[in-house]
């Protein structure tokens, strides 16, 4: 994604720079065309003003009625006010000549004679560019002077073209830009560098000049001088047959554009660098939780299924982490469930083997106990010493205890065989409490039973549940120190019927509570065989129920049995 962002930034910047270049190029061409057209107009205006000045002077001289003194004063005043004319003469048809004071007679030049001759023919005339004694360009001008409808004189003026330089100097084009004028031969008529004008060297070849003259629009070209490029634009002045050229160094023209390009490249590079930094930061932010998750997944792969992946985001990675945690939790539960199932299967298999063996052992031991009991009964009819009587009573007690243990052992060793039928558990519980009523009265124990009137019957084996509840009530009574309280409650929880037996006796220590359902574990010493709670659990499990115990030492015990209603 990041390369595409950088490529997009670079492409956008390139398009903008190219658009800026095209617009700048178009603007430069249009602006320079406007400048050279304005310059050409200024030069045309200069020449038109010079012609109008000569014609206005001719009208003034006609009003002076050709008085020699007045004419000389008018010519001197004109030349003083119009310094662009360095020579002004009034030439009559009879050969007389009036000139400004201090001025010499016109030199015998072909160009001057040509325009004077045209003026005598009634036409205003301007000569081609001529060169004076100082090798500077000039133009001869002459206009006719009429009086009473006749041409009586010709007004001659020599226009020094160096005054056009003032016009060109007023047009500033940067530091290197300049406008100059060429005659048809390519000679400089006006230029900022006076040496070019004085030397008389041609500025451009005839091919370039012809191309400019033949085009109705400004002509553009690029010239190279000493390895440096110059932008040139030329236009033809048809009135004077001159060529006006605009010339400026290319580096100056494109300095602003190049500076913009540099700024654009710098900005693009900075934007790309910023995009790379932001992208790297985003990638690190994106990769960091993945790396953390990868490390934790490796640890989970080593068997630490209890480890949870740290999830701190709410994006797709966070969803993946939470899903992975759910998966590991489910896998952990599945493994635990499989382990418990395997243990139960192994226990069931062991119990099955134990049941087969227990039947035979119990049968043989039971026969032995019966024989011992019969022998003890027979000895009761015989005269015995006091010591013999005590031994006989001890023998009968131990035989009864062993017989009870064998009965409990058979119940535990053989899986319960259910004979289910609809059973009202409150009746079973009341029967259990009634069986313990003599002990309850003797010890002053407070017994209560809270049973919901709408409690439904459950499909169960009444004799087995009687055995389980009897064991629980018996344990609660034995846990009381003197008088105490035993509470039996029934509650309906959805599709389950919960029966709880609670007492306020001595309670069970935590380390004993964890082992209370283990076979042969007892805290009663010889008074117990450790099979009572194991038998209760097997009966409840056979009914698809659960049994839980909550107890704290000195605070009593709460045992809850949950049985499915259906």
TrEMBL record:
Listed GO biological process terms: phosphorelay signal transduction system
Q: Where is the Histidine kinase domain?
A: 360-566
Which cellular component terms (GO) are annotated to the entry? plasma membrane
GO terms (molecular function) for this protein are: ATP binding; protein histidine kinase activity
Q: What is its EC number?
A: 2.7.13.3
What keywords appear on the UniProt entry?
ATP-binding, Cell membrane, Kinase, Membrane, Nucleotide-binding, Phosphoprotein, Transferase, Transmembrane, Transmembrane helix, Two-component regulatory system
User: What does the record give as the reaction this protein catalyses?
Assistant: ATP + protein L-histidine = ADP + protein N-phospho-L-histidine
Q: Does the keyword Aminoacyl-tRNA synthetase apply?
A: no
* Membrane topology according to the record: Multi-pass membrane protein
Name of this protein: histidine kinase
* Domain HAMP, first and last residues per copy: 284-336
Concerning Pfam families, the annotation shows: dCache_1 (PF02743), HAMP (PF00672), HATPase_c (PF02518)
The reply to whether Iron figures as a keyword in the UniProt entry is no
Q: Which PANTHER family match?
A: PEROXIDE STRESS-ACTIVATED HISTIDINE KINASE MAK3, SENSOR HISTIDINE KINASE
Location(s), subcellular: Cell membrane
């Amino acid at each position: 994604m990041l390369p595409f962002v950088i490529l997009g930034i670079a492409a956008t910047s390139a398009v903008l720079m190219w658009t800026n270049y095209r617009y700048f190029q178009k603007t430069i061409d249009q602006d320079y065309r406007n400048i050279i057209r304005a310059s050409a107009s200024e030069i045309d205006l200069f020449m038109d003003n010079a012609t109008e000045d000569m014609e206005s002077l001719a009208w003034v001289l006609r009003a002076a009625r050709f008085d020699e003194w007045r004419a000389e004063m008018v010519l001197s005043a004109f030349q003083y006010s119009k310094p662009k004319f360095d020579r002004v003469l009034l030439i009559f048809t009879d050969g007389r000549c009036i000139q400004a004071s201090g001025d010499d007679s016109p030199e015998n030049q072909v160009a001057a004679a040509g325009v004077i001759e045209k003026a005598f023919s009634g036409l205003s005339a301007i000569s081609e560019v001529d060169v004076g004694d100082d090798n500077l360009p000039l133009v001869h001008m002459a206009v006719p002077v009429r009086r009473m409808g006749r041409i009586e004189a010709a007004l001659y003026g020599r226009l020094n073209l160096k005054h056009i330089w003032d016009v060109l100097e007023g047009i500033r084009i940067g530091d290197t830009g300049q406008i100059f004028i060429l005659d048809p031969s390519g000679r400089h008529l006006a230029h900022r560098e006076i040496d070019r004008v004085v030397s008389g060297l041609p500025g451009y070849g005839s091919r370039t000049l012809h191309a400019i003259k033949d085009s109705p629009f400004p002509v553009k070209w690029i010239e190279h001088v000493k390895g440096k490029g110059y932008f040139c634009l030329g236009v033809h002045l048809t009135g004077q047959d001159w060529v006006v050229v605009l010339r400026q160094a290319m580096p100056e023209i494109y300095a602003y554009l190049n500076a913009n390009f540099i700024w654009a490249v710098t900005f693009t590079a900075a934007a790309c660098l910023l995009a790379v930094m932001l992208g790297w930061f985003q990638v690190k932010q994106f990769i960091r939780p993945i790396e953390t998750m990868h490390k934790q997944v490796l640890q989970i792969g080593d068997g630490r299924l209890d480890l949870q992946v740290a999830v701190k985001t709410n994006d797709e990675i966070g969803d993946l982490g939470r899903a992975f945690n759910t998966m590991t939790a489910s896998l952990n539960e599945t493994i635990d469930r499989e382990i418990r199932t395997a243990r139960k299967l192994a226990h069931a298999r062991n119990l099955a083997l134990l049941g087969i063996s227990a039947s035979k052992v119990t049968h043989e031991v039971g026969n032995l106990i019966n024989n011992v009991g019969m022998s003890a009964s027979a000895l009761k009819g015989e005269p015995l010493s006091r010591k013999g009587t005590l031994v006989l009573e001890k023998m009968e007690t131990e035989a009864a205890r062993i017989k009870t243990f064998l009965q409990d052992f058979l119940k535990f060793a053989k899986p319960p065989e259910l004979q289910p039928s609809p059973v009202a558990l409150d009746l079973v519980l009341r029967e259990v409490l009634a069986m313990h009523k003599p002990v309850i009265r003797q010890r002053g124990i407070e017994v209560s039973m809270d049973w919901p009137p709408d409690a439904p019957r459950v499909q169960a084996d009444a004799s087995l549940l009687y055995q389980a509840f009897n064991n629980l009530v018996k344990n609660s009574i034995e846990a009381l120190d003197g008088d105490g309280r035993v509470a039996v409650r029934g509650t309906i929880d959805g599709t389950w019927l919960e029966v709880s037996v609670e007492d306020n006796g001595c309670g069970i220590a935590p380390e004993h509570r964890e082992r209370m359902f283990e076979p042969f574990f007892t805290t009663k010493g010889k008074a117990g065989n450790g099979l009572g709670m194991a038998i209760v659990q097997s009966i409840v499990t056979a009914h698809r129920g659960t049994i839980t115990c909550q107890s704290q030492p000195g605070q009593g015990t709460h045992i809850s049995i949950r049985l499915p209603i259906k």
